[in-house]
Amino acid sequence: xxxxxxxxxxxxxxxxxxxxxxxxxxxxxxxxxxxxxxxxxxxxxxxxxxxxxxxxxxxxxxxxxxxxxxxxxxxxxxxxxxxxxxxxxxxxxxxxxxxxxxxxxxxxxxxxxxxxxxxxxxxxxxxxxxx
Length: 131
Fold this sequence. Notes:
Blueprint: E1 8-12, H1 17-32, E2 35-39, H2 45-49, H3 53-56, E3 61-63, E4 69-71, H4 73-81, H5 87-92, H6 96-119
Parallel strand pairs: 1-2
Antiparallel strand pairs: 1-3, 3-4
């Protein structure tokens, strides 16, 4: 872990082509929010979170400076709440019926993210032709 970002670390599945692609694309925006990005597979992550890698890889995570974790769709809500253009989506994602839909959509995507990456032709990081 290099330095401590002001508001924490967004931790993503570094073996997922789509996750790696979008995280690197949004890293500058996240940095303006005081957030750094790192793969969940980074050697320091299990120690800092207290979770085994198998558990960590089930969700995107936000490791706050105080050591607490935000997971799954709540990570997206955390970020959207702080972006002027994401704030309307944040509000909609908290409306009771839409919250369930947002969470279900996230969970469905998370379970199938690697298949989606393959279907979209986004190679895994380190794969031939990958980033």
